[in-house]
Amino acid sequence: MSHNPEVKMQSELAPAVQADIIADIARCIKATNSLTILTHQQPDGDAVGSSLGLRLALVKLGKQVQVACPNPVPDKYQFLPEAETILTEVSGQPQVVVAVDADNWSRLGGLEAVIQDANTTILIDHHATNAGGADLDYIDPTAAASAVQIYHLLLALDVVPDADIATCLYCGLATDTGFFTFENTTPEALWIAAELVAAGANPHQIAQQVATRLSLAAAILRGRALASLQTAADGRLVYATLTPRDFALAGRRRPAGVRDAYSP
Ligand SMILES: [Mn+2]
Fold first, then answer.
1. Which of 29, 39, 70, 71 has its CA at a distance of 20 to 30 angstroms from the CA of residue 104?
2. Has residue 163 been placed in a domain?
3. What domain count does the chain have?
4. How far apart are CA 123 and CA 139, in angstroms?
5. Burial 51-86 (b: 16+ CB within 10 A, else e)
């Protein structure tokens, strides 16, 4: 199949919807030597992937960058490039702070105070409920993931994603779209996914790490949950029950959230 010169690249087809604020953030970043990236508690694939992708890009620009999250990175995201650089505490007194994927400040948990003490705050998030409040608010509910916004920011910073950056951002985009099955699977999400794969992200390996592989404990819990299914309200309600004994049988402590019970 020959290349069709009529086919335009994603960046031409889907310009960032908030180019002005992105340009402002890019200018602020370029003028800064040291940045701190924060993301939300109980981090998901977008929180981890977007933060790490942004960190790698800023390091490429010669910046000093630390990333912090109130909770440790879940095991299934530890494969991401330089995941070990994510700290649970902030060192020093950061002047420029970028909050990523946090739909409100309280989601930063114990790190929220860092925002109050900073000179300049930048918020990058895609939740429609986000009320903003940073010095530079880049809130775009049309973005499928914060990873999409980071991608647009990297274009504004003239950073071409390498394979590591692409892997981090693809992980964020894929997990927030349910591996391109949720309603937020827009043309833009797919174009950017294609760009990230072209840049070196491996969709198969990332899906294997994040979604396909299952630990024995998680498999046992899923099995017991399915075996416990009951119906109510004339079959309109279906529910499953997991008791402390189920968790003990699976060799796993009862997690804080139900979703965690299922995590690989
Ligand atoms: Mn997200």
1. 29
2. yes
3. 2
4. 7
5. bbbbbbbbebbebebbbbbbbebbebbeebbebebb
How many angstroms is it from 212 CA to the middle of ligand 1?
Answer: 20
- 8 C-alpha vs ligand 1 centroid, how far in Å? 27
Task: For residue range 8-59, list pLDDT tens digits in order.
Answer: 554 555 567 799 999 999 999 999 999 999 999 999 999 999 999 999 999 9
| Domain hosting residue 23, numbered range | 10-210
Helix or strand holding residue 120 (H, E): strand 120-125
The reply to whether 231 and 192 lie within a common domain is no
Q: Give φ, ψ of 87 to 5 degrees.
A: -100, 165
Distance 76 CA to ligand 1 centre (A): 17
Q: How far is the CA of 234 from the centre of ligand 1 (A)?
A: 36
CA–centroid distance, residue 44 to ligand 1 (Å): 8
